[in-house]
Structure formats: C-alpha cells, structure tokens
Amino acid sequence: MAEDLINKEIYFPSYLGTNDKLITLLNRTSIILCDWLSKANKNGPLPFNESFKCMMPAEDGNSEEDLFSEIESLLNNSFNPVHPGSLAHLDPPPLIFSILGDLIAAGLNNNLLAYELSPSVTLLEESLCKWFAEKIGFDDFSGGIAASGGTLSNLNALIAARNNAGLGTNPNSVLLVSEDAHSSFIKCIKVMGLDTSNLVRIKTDNQGRMNINDLRKSLDKCSIENKKIFAIVATLGTTVRGAIDPIREISEICKQRNIWLHIDGSIGGIFAITSIPIEGLNSINKANSITINPQKILGITKTSSLLLVSNMSTLENTFNTGLPYISSKENIINRGEIGIQGSRPAEIIKLWLGLRFLGLNGIEDILKSSIKRKDFFIKNISKNKFDIYSGPLHIVSFLPKELEPKESDEWTHTKVNELINNNFMLSRPKFKGKYFLRVVMGNYNTNESHIKELLGLLDA
Ligand SMILES: Cc1ncc(COP(=O)(O)O)c(C=O)c1O
C-alpha cells in the first residue's frame, strides 16, 4: 500500500509501528484523570462553580491543547464519586481494574451484536453469565445477557416473561410489583405498549417488604377481572430503603400459579454470590430471571448490568430475528439475538476484570464494609429525632419525626444544600408522600470519622 495513504493524519491507531502518538495521548489522559480523582478531597463531591462551556465541533478540528484543556474543564465540573462524602446514590467509586476494562473495551471497539464482531468477548460474556447463574443456583439450562443498566435488564426479562406466557399483544396482561419497586417498571410497562394501570402495585409491610396477603388478594382480583399476569417482580433491595421482598413465599405462589418470577436484584443481587447471610437469598434460584447490577455497589464502572435466566431458550425464543446480514457459527449464539439491544460495547470486560481483580474475598469485603458503615450510621443517628427506614442492605432514608409533607420538602431541601456546602452529598427521595434524606453507604472511601461528621451536621 502506498506510504502516503498511511497515517497522513493521525485519526486512528496505526496498524504499523509503535503507535507512539497514541501512547503519549493515553499517558497524558491517564495523568489528568488520576489527578482529578486524587484532588477529590479538595473539591468535594460536586463542583462548586459550574463553569463548563459545551464547545461544539468547528469547521476544523481543534488542537490537542484545546482538547486537553476542555477535558480538564469537563472533569472539574463533574460529580466525583471517589469523594468520601459522595453518599447520595448507587454510584460508588470506580474500581481500578474496571477503569482499565473500559479503556480496553474502547480500544477493541468490538461489538456484542455478533460473534464475528467480538469472538473472545462473546465467549467471555456467555461464560461470565453462566458463572453467575451457577453461583446463584440455576442449573445447566441457565445463562444470561448483559445490558446497559438495570432498567434494560428488567425490560429484557419482562418481555421474555410475557412472550413465554403467550401474552405478546394481549392488552389485558398485567405485571405485579410492590409499591416500593423501582420506578423503571412504569417505563417498562409503557415500552411494552401497556397502560400504566396494567402495573399492579402490591402493598408493603412495615419493613418495606411485599405483603403476601395483599399479593394473594391482588392475584384473586386479577383472575376475577380476567387479567392475565405475565410476571410478578420481587425486589431484592428497594431503592429507598434496601428492603427485600419475601422471595421464598413469592416463589411458592408463582410456582403454584405458574407465573414467571422476576427478581429485581439491581441493588442486592450481587450479595447472592457471597456467603454474607441475607434473608431470602437462598431462594433466588427459584426465579425465572434475575437482574444483577454490580455497578451499583461494587464499583464496576457503568454500566454493567446482567440479566440471568433459568432457561436461555426463553431469551432465544423471544428475541431471535435471524440477523440476516450476520454470519453465525454453530453452537454459538449471536448475543444481539437474546436481548433488546443490537450493537453493544464490550462492557463485560470491565465486569470480568473487576471481579477477577477482587476475587470472591474482595467482593465480600466491599459488600460487608457497606453494611458495616450503614450499621454504624444507624447505631449513632438519633432515634428520638428521626424516623428511620432501612433494611438488610446499605441504604437508609430518614426524616425528623412528625414533619408534615410540606415541611419535609422544605427541611430536606435546606439540609441537602447545607450538607453539600460541607462536602456531603445525600439524596432526597419522595417516599410515602413525604421527602426524606437518603444516605447510600456504598462508598469504600467513607470511614467512621466521616460518618460522625455527617451525623454532627444532621444533629445541628
Ligand atoms: C431497585 C432498582 N431497580 C432498577 C433500577 C434501575 O437501574 P438503572 O438506573 O441502572 O437502569 C434501580 C436504580 O437505582 C434500582 O434501584
């Protein structure tokens, strides 16, 4: 090939020589990123002065110097999850080996749509899903698929459940979830072409767990009204308080009535591969499908959600189209054929590298430390002053006793601002008609002295 056609401009990595330019740029980028991460303590979880200018592409490309200064500005105006006061959401610091996994996935630019576009990564995703499935007690027919986030994993499951029940286009088909289940189920119902009234909400008990009597009543009511149930969702870790629905009882009901059980384990599912004793976890292999989303607590970088199913043929039967423009290989499933997404990045690499780096002991250490921080917080928060809502996981929502809804709005608003000025970022979920403050103890950098400081600010 003529030399002048090669590397005229350095747009792409070279396939010849050493790629010196790319190495220099990667090194510089790594230094900027690491600098930003290690400056977190100086800057706080959120930028104080939002000053990021969104510069759009111009006629000519910009210089490296311009771009690096824009990258720095982007970082300096970003939420910083490594700050020990970052306690608002299910967004912990990124695991080091997951950062590397993201880099490798970007450089590979393989596509999980098909085996021919991602040979090693296809096998990796298949094997890792199988490993997870076996760990939680599914049998040989099981497996899974990665997707960009818990919402999509849940949606993949529910579409498969409806298809499996033969209710594809039936407008009378309904989904049962607890009143504390995640809001994404509203989206799922809409995307599935159903009315929001097809999402039946089951009451929770005083621990935030699905009330089994209410579930039974709702099931009977559905059958009287000739509604067809395509799935019941049990939540393994609710968003506001980390409660776990009674999975064993729900699974027995599903078995008796031949209903698909989906477990939304976006938050708590990862506990099931450890020996940490949490009620309900030993029954999760009774489910037809389960979402596990290790980005939410382990710090695998976003996104890294998995849907595991007890029988892979349910995904194949639901999503297979034949992919007419793609070759297939015997005994290997093109992974664009078992879920909603077509082209998909190799996100599995960061999950795999993160988990390989941690090992089961490291995973357990991170999860246990989250629970320990939650326990320390609960032990030391004033029980006289606050109503506290929590569960077996690492999430706590709380509010001064006897506040009316309007006062809860004002109090949480003021408090969130006051806390962020002191470098603590908490969230304010709406729950039971009031606003609460919520602390998510998934940040490995947060220690007891940080928690004491936070409690001091809450008491003030
Ligand atoms: C219990 C639960 N399920 C599902 C989701 C949706 O996950 P994602 O935001 O990754 O789509 C969340 C988000 O926090 C959640 O808490």
Summarize the structure.
By secondary structure, this protein is of the alpha/beta class. Helices cover 40% and strands 12% of the residues. It has 13 helices and 12 strands.
Output the CATH homologous superfamily of the largest domain: Type I PLP-dependent aspartate aminotransferase-like (Major domain)
- Principal-axis shape: globular
Q: Strand order of the main beta sheet, please?
A: 1-7-6-5-4-2-3
CATH topology of the largest domain: Aspartate Aminotransferase, domain 2
Can you name the CATH architecture of the largest domain? 3-Layer(aba) Sandwich
Give the bound compounds. Answer: pyridoxal-5'-phosphate
Largest sheet: 7 strands, mixed
Instruction: Give the CA-CA distance, first to last residue.
Output: 73 Å
The number of helical elements comes to 13
**Alpha carbon gyration radius:** 24 Å
Q: In percent, how much strand structure appears in the residues? A: 5-15%
